[in-house]
Amino acid sequence: MGHVGLILGIEMSRLARSCKDWHHLLEICALFGTLIADLDGVYDPSQYNDRLLLGLKGTMSAAELHLLKQRMSQGRISKAQRGALNFPVPTGYVRRASGEVVFDPDEQVQQVTRLVFRKFEELGTVHAVLRYLVEHQIDIGIRVRTGECKGDLEWHRPNRVSLQNTLKNPIYAGAYAYGRRQGVPAKEEPSRTRTKKMAMEDWHVMIRDQLPAYISWEQYQLNQAQLQANRRGAESVGAAQSGNGLLVGLLVCGKCGCRMSIHYQPQGHQYRCGRQATDYGGVSCQGISGKSLDQAVVSFALQALSPAAIELSLAALTQLEQERQDLNCHWQQRLERASYEANRAQRHYQLVEPENRLVARQLAQEWEANLRRHQQLQEEYKRFCQQQSNQVSEDEREAIRQLANRIPQLWDASTTTNTQRKEILRQILVRVILNVNENEFAHLMLEWVGGACSETQIQRPVAKLTQLSNYSQLCTRVHELVAQGCGAQEIAQQLNQAGFYPPKRRSTFNAQQIQSLVRNLGLHTTRNQRTKQELPLHEWWLTDLAQVLSMPTVTLYSWIRAGWVNARQQEHLPR
User: Fold this and answer.
1) DSSP 453
2) Most CB atoms closer than 10 Å: which of 316, 375, 512, 514?
3) Is the separation of the CB atoms in 503 and 468 below 8 Å?
4) pTM (predicted TM-score)
5) What is the mean pLDDT of the chain?
6) In terms of domains, do 274 and 399 share one?
7) What is the pLDDT of residues 75-95, one digit of tens each?
8) Spatial separation of the C-alpha atoms in residues 240 and 562, rounded to whole Å
9) Strand, coil or helix: what is 159?
10) Are residues 425 and 478 in the same domain?
11) H helix intervals, 136-284
């Protein structure tokens, strides 16, 4: 250190991009006694006057740089506000030499772009659109932006990111937007900036009806709402999945107002609200068996669909015809492009001199490759035509017309997936509000699309007799029948005739359930009393012994199997 005595430069303060760098240089020079020289003179940073003068020069230089940067930024925004700032356009558009943005002159590129928006409006998710494009071998046309091949059209396999960018870009709705991504300080390193997607209200510029549009602005807003709803979260419905729970995303807890989650178990699915337990350490609000709830809501939905069945069948017919026309148009464009490539390769081969064998062989190979590609596409198109005709047949038309009378059968058909059932429910229902009572009943409020509401009460399976709404009347009736000397089987018949029912969605009582209920109530039927009197000394019925020892009957059964308890089974019980 100390090897440098003088630093020479022209306008030294302009070498630093910020005052921090400039003052750091002054500190180092003052520490080691290094002088600084420019066109105006020689300065010693260790001296007060020179240090003050150098500091002022650095401050003025930094202020000038900041002012220039601010002017350039404001000029860029001002130009964007006039719609005159040029930026790269996405697939489906090209920019002319004059700066005007127009549709891509290639018809196939336009057709594929419109197809993406139509299929998203129909299917509702990006992944479903991607599967459709891959299944039908539809590629995305992209113009090369840089290099020797700038402006050439290339076809790439579709992917999820490119489809999302297409659906989110407002240019397809004819809007000129600037500032969709802006620089913000990075959390991990505030001195650096990173780009972040901004909300629409925070964009610098947004001018509607400025550019050619593939979709309307209203359709663009619906697409953004659908993309937001497909996100997983408490405030969004989420995309329809293939699970058995049909009300996922629609069911709302009537106690806390949060969306209820689904839990799959071997015996079936269940809806639960665990927001209070998860966020606040409390207890879960409520839960209900999914099968009974789904059946109740589906019955209401099918009733609501009956008046609109004819309109649905006509819409299905129109959609089927439109899809076949789109696919056939896409195949025709692929064949036309392959034919053009083959003819162009033929012309190139015919223009070469016969003596130039090196070039002729290469062009011949390219010609043969394009011919094979054209022939392959023709064979694939023939298979496509064999699988489905271009026009809807009369049988298909008649089958679609019969949809009006077969909606329940179509709903239960094995060909109808859970994803399709969920999509149907989401088209007619906004949400379902659930309030589970302490008994076997639950209150439902269905909010339909359009503002109408329906309220109903459903019966849910409960685990215990004590949860039944008529438990007190049931106990009173059992007391009366036991006092009359009725046996378990006779009591069960009397209760079934009176309209009583057991828990767990069973329809009738049996003798075993009555015996368990009588024991829990501390009663004994006449049959049990007679049976106990006939037992020898030092013998107990298994249930009575379990009560005496205060242990579960399951434990006594395990002891019997292990040989720890002497037991016998009485084949014929006294009547």
Assistant:
1) E
2) 514
3) yes
4) 0.55
5) 81
6) yes
7) 888 888 888 888 899 999 999
8) 52
9) coil
10) no
11) 160-168, 217-230, 275-280
